[in-house]
Design goal:
This protein is α/β, with parallel strands linked by helices and 186 residues long. It has one domain. It is 39% helix and 18% strand. The chain has 7 helices and 6 strands. Helix 4 crosses helix 5. The protein is globular. The chain starts with 7 loop residues before the first strand and ends with a helix. Bound molecules: iron/sulfur cluster (SF4).
């Protein structure tokens, strides 16, 4: 039977398709990250949306925080169990011969960052987001657990962090560069 599917799947952090999972003040789009979604549609990939890990454990009224408060064994364990459920599903796509081409995380997020996360400038005093936070090299807690489990399954996508509001305000070129990288990859 004729079938048009491309066999390519991109896994995305929840807020890329639903900005309502973000903490107040962080949404740049009314509903979804349209610039990213347009590229995914143009390239004909399937989109697998990860449930929002922070909403899963903390609910929807949480404040934005750096990685430090999320980097705790009990939180990591809950994120790992969520990641395991997702990997259990992605395994089926792999078995059918589909390619998990990329994971798009939310750069700068303590949970879904890929290459950058926030840290308290002063871990003793802590403070408020974003004034008392710096962005440093690192991966969010959920993504660290998700990546380990995917690697155990032999699933090795390209990991791309989509910069959010805080990082875009620090670097005006970072978002365009990320879009270009995504276009080239897909
Ligand atoms: S970055 Fe991750 S944890 Fe934060 S809102 Fe998006 S999906 Fe949820």
């Amino acid at each position: 039977m004729e079938d048009s599917r491309s066999g390519k799947i991109v896994v995305v952090s929840h807020c890329i398709l639903n900005v309502h999972s973000l903490e107040d003040g962080l949404a740049i789009y009314p509903g979804m990250e349209e610039d990213i979604v347009k590229i995914l549609v143009e390239k004909g990939v399937g989109i697998y949306q990860i449930p929002c890990p922070e909403t899963y454990i903390m609910g929807i009224f949480r404040q934005p925080l750096p990685k430090d408060p999320y980097d705790k064994p009990q939180i990591r364990e809950r994120f790992r169990s969520l990641a395991k459920e997702i990997v259990d599903q992605l395994r089926w796509y792999k078995k059918k011969g589909y390619s998990i081409v990329a994971v798009l995380g939310a750069e700068g997020s303590p949970t879904c960052g890929i290459n950058k996360v926030g840290r308290w400038k002063d871990p003793v005093k802590k403070g408020r987001f974003p004034d008392d936070v710096i962005f440093v090299e690192g991966m969010g807690v959920f993504m660290e657990e998700f990546k380990k489990l995917l690697e155990e399954e032999g699933i090795n996508p390209v990991w791309i962090g989509i910069p959010g509001k805080s990082l875009r305000s620090l670097d005006p070129f970072i978002f365009e560069e990320t879009l270009e990288k995504l276009r080239k990859l897909l």
